Amino acid sequence: MEFPVHGIYPAMLTPMNPDESPNLEAIPTLVEYVLGAGVHGLFVVGTHGEAYALTTQEREAVIAAYVQAVAGRVPVLAGVGAVTTRAALANLRGAEEAGADGVSVVAPYFISPGQDELYAHFRAIAEATDLPVLLYDLPSRTHISIAPQTMARLAEIDNIVGIKDSSGDLNNTIDHIRLTPGDTAVMNGNDGLICAALGAGTAGAVAATANIVPGLLVSLYESFRGGDLEAAWEAQLRVMPLRRCFALSTVPDPIKEAARAIGLPVGPTARPVGPMSGEAKQRLRQVLGDLGLSVQE
After folding, report:
1. Cβ–Cβ contacts within 10 Å for residue 29, how many?
2. What digits encode the pLDDT tens for the residues 260-280?
């Protein structure tokens, strides 16, 4: 199966109303902002999309709203991961009903399954759908890793087309690339390593900062692919201060606060997360100004 993901995929935010229900009417604004910069696809209801804060019905509604707003211009990948296989399969059905072009499955969290259990989990999900499946390794949140050797086994399944590696470990990324077939793509999930990961052979990146500076990340990718490594690294260095702002408060609030600061209608972050301190907001706004963005008072 041809891999549907390459280039820059923003890890899209889920806009919320004051009561923390999804603000579906705001989604087209977010879509047009990133598509106008030339992103290659959208990654929705993941970590920065606050999937954990959505009910099953809300998750499906958010995916459907993104699919409708995109209107086939780029692929939409939807997160369907859950603690149990049964719950992930239920999320999968919702993503299919909502019209997603593919699904992403994060490793289970809270529990600590072994590699054989992970293999069985992901295999069951892949065999339950005809959609392309991108696995998602996020050990800082799930506390377990999808080992490159396990990914190599899973890559033999036709519709498991790749993995988003958010380990932040370039050695791990290289092992994924080294051990999987050439038609299995690895997407980088750490915004600070996009350029280095492209050099190692990744297909692109799923990047939260692309909610804020999509054009900068697209230029990074296109410059690298075009052989202008100096321009690619210059873009990577410009991204770094914004990526460092992730440490100012609990993810995903830093990116939501950045979006609010530049006038995007994302609303609050689901409690107990956020809001960041006044000092942190000031530091974030300085970074946004340095990037040439117009910051609202």
Report:
1. 15
2. 999 999 999 999 998 999 999
